[in-house]
Amino acid sequence: MSTYLPTIKQLQYLVALYEHGHFGRAAEASFVSQSTLSAGIRELESLLGVTLVERSRRVVRFTALGQEVTQKAHRILREAEELSDLVKAAGKPLAGQLRMSVIPTIAPFMLPHILPRLRRERPDLKLMLREETSADAVESLQHGRADCVLLALPFATGEVEKAHIADDILHVALPHDDPRDPPAEIPASMLGEGRLLLLEDGHCLRDHALAACDRPGLQASASMIATSLHTLVQMVDNGLGVTLLPQMAIDAGILAGTRVVARPLKAVDAKREIALVWRKNSPRRSDFELLAQELRAG
């Protein structure tokens, strides 16, 4: 066995540089000076006897071996965090720091009702929240930047365990004077491609909307894309088209102050599943299951 092994800190510096692609930003994210981070990576290279990063005045480029080492470092750091989680799990249930990523089509509508009660009833829980798109949130989970993710399924999550929170029904949002507005459900066949407003790529609700309308391959033009549900509602209110909204957003009052009306979508997959997911075989599984119970209680 080698006498000298890489330290956790050295591996953290390497991973931070890979993720940020810039020594200054990586150092800031690691809460150290740029010289400290640079020295730590040089020490790692000297220890391993290889070059991991090619440096120039403007570009940081990882060697092929450097990329492989970084991927291994990701796994080592995740294992180290799970070791720490194992110790935490032996203490008081649902206590200590817990990092949760939440997608933007859930966070502003669900969390305001839940966080005050969690702070009141779980004072020992330090919940660290991060809003990310589904793809970024899953990547954060796999790389150990998040302990769990609150998102909507179906979505490709890889090797995870999950707890069902709720089914969220999809509705069609139309201008108040839309001639196609029926008194009840709206069939997907009534949603013309030319007027269907969507979220930009990276939001799972975009995929859910297209699947529900049986148009998974539809590519939207730039005029049909928004970055948030609130923007979509404003676009509908100004007669630019129609969109799909989840029930939780409607219940949270997203249509307040507009003349937009919402009708249930009549389709086989006119819903999304709200779920809490975490890494498979995580030692904090009992904590995540307890958190899921809290989320279901609303």
- Roughly what percent helix? 40-55%
Broad structural category: alpha/beta
Shape: globular
| Number of continuous helical runs | 10
- For the record, what is the CATH homologous superfamily label of the largest domain? Periplasmic binding protein-like II
Largest sheet: 8 strands, mixed
Rounded mean pLDDT score? 84
Count of individual beta strands: 12
Kindly provide the radius of gyration, computed on alpha-carbon positions and rounded to a whole number of angstroms. Answer: 23 Å
* SSE order: HHHEEHEHEHEEEEHEHEHEEH
CATH architectural name of the largest domain: 3-Layer(aba) Sandwich
Q: Point out poorly predicted stretches.
A: none
Q: How many separate domains make up the residues?
A: 3
Strand content: 15-25%
The span between the termini is 52 Å
CATH C-level category of the largest domain: Alpha Beta
Q: Write down the CATH topology of the largest domain.
A: D-Maltodextrin-Binding Protein, domain 2
Family: Belongs to the LysR transcriptional regulatory family.
InterPro entries: LysR_HTH_N (IPR000847), LysR_subst-bd (IPR005119), WH-like_DNA-bd_sf (IPR036388), WH_DNA-bd_sf (IPR036390)
Domain HTH lysR-type: 6-63
Protein name: LysR substrate-binding domain-containing protein
